[in-house]
Design goal:
mainly alpha; TerB-like
Length: about 150
Amino acid sequence: MISLFKKILSGGESELSDLVPDDPAEKIRIATCAILVEIAGADNEFSASEQDRIIDILTTKYQLTSEEAVDLIEIASEEIKGSIDLYRFTRIIAAGYSLKDRIEIMEAIWSVVYADGELSRHEDSLVHKLSYLLGLSHKHLIDAKLKVLGRS
């Protein structure tokens, strides 16, 4: 995995669909990180607490080191710059993950949103859009939010 990160960061393949044709799990990691980075920046501020939360999610969910997680954030940020929308990322996640896994991704999204203690209207709007694109119901969206807020 580290060699893939180095290849991408040094100017290797940059199109997500061409990154690792034989490793769908790697595509899912990059797509997941991309939507977490996008939600962190939805309020036009990518705070240190949001970045720390994303690193925590990536190290826990994907057993990455902190350095690998930071590299993955850089890769995902570059992928976002080259993308016109989030559909290509959510499509990879929806196709590769079960409903349970997608709900866990929604919980991760909410935890990034609340990492800075605030929910902006832009973040709220984007969370609803991501929920739809991930094929989740409104109930899944609210249950994930309540779980993150400790109210479930």
